[in-house]
Structures are given as C-alpha cells and as structure tokens.
Design goal:
about 325 residues; alpha/beta; Rossmann fold; UDP-galactose 4-epimerase, domain 1; 2 domains; three-stranded mixed β-sheet; 10 helices; 14 strands; globular
Length: about 325
Amino acid sequence: MRIFVTGIAGFLGSHLAERLLAMGHHVVGCDSLLGGELVNVPPEAEFYQYDCRDFNAMAKVMKGAELIYHCAATAYEGLSVFAPAMIMDNILSGSVAVFSAAIAGGARRIVFCSSMARYGTNQVPFEEGFDPRPQDPYGIAKVAAEAALRNLAAAHGVEYAIAVPHNIIGRRQKFDDPYRNVASIMANLMLQGRQPFIYGDGEQQRCFSHVEDCLSCLLAMGLTDRGLSQVVNIGPDEEFVTINALFRRLKDITGFEGQAIHLKDRPAEVKHAWCSSERARRLLGYRTTRDLDAGLRDVVDHIRTLGPRKFRYHLDLEIRTARTPRTWTERLM
C-alpha cells in the first residue's frame, strides 16, 4: 500500500514510517523540519520538505496514497498560550490542508493524531466519551481539526480514525527544544550538570507513553477496521506520576545530584491529566509493554549517545507579559 505520513522527520512520524516500511508498504512523507530532523527520516521513504499548510504541495505529493497518517503538529501546548497565532495556524490550517489534499488525491482513510489537550479540565482518567474542554489554544485547534475531519470525511465518503497519544517518550525524542517534552528537557539539563526547572509546585500529574506502545495502536487504526470513526486514547493508564516524581526518577537514571528550580505556575496548565486506555484495550488489543522507567532510560540513553545539546529558542513569543515563563523570556535554559 502507498501510505503517506506527515511529520515523518519527527519523533512519532519517523518511528511509524519505519514500522510501515518493515511491513512492506511504500511510505511517502513530508516535514517542514520546524520540529523534526532530517536524520530521522528512514532512507527507504520518499521524502518531501513541505509545510502541511501548503495545500498545492500536499495535493501533489499525496496523490495516490490510500492511507494518510497525519502526525505533523507544532506540539507546543504550553507555548500556545504565548504564541497562539502561529500554533493554531499550523495545527488547524495545516490539518485542513492535509485532509483536503488527501481526499482530493483519492485517499481511502485518514488517521489523525489529536492530543490529550482535547480533554482540558475534565475529570481523570479522561475517557473518549467526555465532551472536549480544551484549556489552551493548542487543544482548541486540535478539537477544531477533529471536527473538520469528521465533516469532510462524511461529505466525501472517506474513512477516518482519531488517535489521542499523550506524553510520548523514547529514543529520538527532540531534547534541545525549550518549549516541549518535559522529560527530555530535564534529562538534557541534568546530563549537562544543570538544574532543571519545574513550574509551580510540581504536583501536576501525567502519564507517559512509550513510543513503541503507541505504534501498535496506530497500525491497527490504519490497517484494520477496528478503530473506524472512533476517538481512541493510545498509551498507558497504569502509571501516572507527578512532575516532582518524574524529576526524582530522572535523578536516579542520570546520576544528577542537584535539585530542581521551581518557578511560578504556567497559566492555563491542566493540573491532572491522564487517559483511560480501556477503549484501546477493547478495540485495538492495546497492552503496555514498556513501563515509565524503561521509557526514561531510552530518553537518557539517546541523549548520551548524541551528546547533550544547547537549547534552541527557534520560535518567537507573540505575547510577552508578566505571566510569560522566565525560562522563555530570559532564555534560562
């Protein structure tokens, strides 16, 4: 099958492309390289450096692809409060362009990677049947993109599925980006002997997903009929952890001997956020095969292999107020 993967140079997209290639599929992909790295693209894949917002480019390279995985995203939930125009444009405009080009090119099915940000301040664990209550521009854009996909799929008779990955970790995750990936940011700083930063009291609760455990769900949603027209949380629900506890686990793995620096809360950050995996277990046969410590060790080993890096402040802040985190305004990392 000819399969198209957006965000193929990114963390999730590159792993997915590798798995599809190993299964014998012809994989085509695009990436703007805003958040991805060219080295991540599997050499067997057909690669185009295009921005998803460019409908004409998407229509050209997607033509003939039967299955589309839309993994590309400016996945900056916290930053979206301070750069909403850029992030919402990338998420919503980019998604609509991808969906439109996919349908115009004859795609049979679209699998969209949404976000746990869709649930906002719902009670935990988040279940797929909950009404979305996003608390930040990133989550709002993801929910709007979901609605656009349902509308276009129904209008044009195209199959769809919506995956909800959450806090994915593992090898190849970007670790020099100061705006996202809390575990990788902490590990990169610790391996440089520098103190990591924790926003607020650090009692925010999260559940982290190993990238390998997400892939089985995405493959099932694309290659079988078990997730059609469904929203499905993909990732574990057995081992939620506070950010303070995450810091302690990374201390043990890295051998870091210092303490974290606590800064004030970030506005609009959801305190408790983890998902139920019951639907994934029932529909997709999901099971957790790698626990949190295994994922964190993979993150640390990856950084050690490549060497710790300086952080790149590659995105502009659109809103600078007293509420904007000092880590970004003063480039503390």
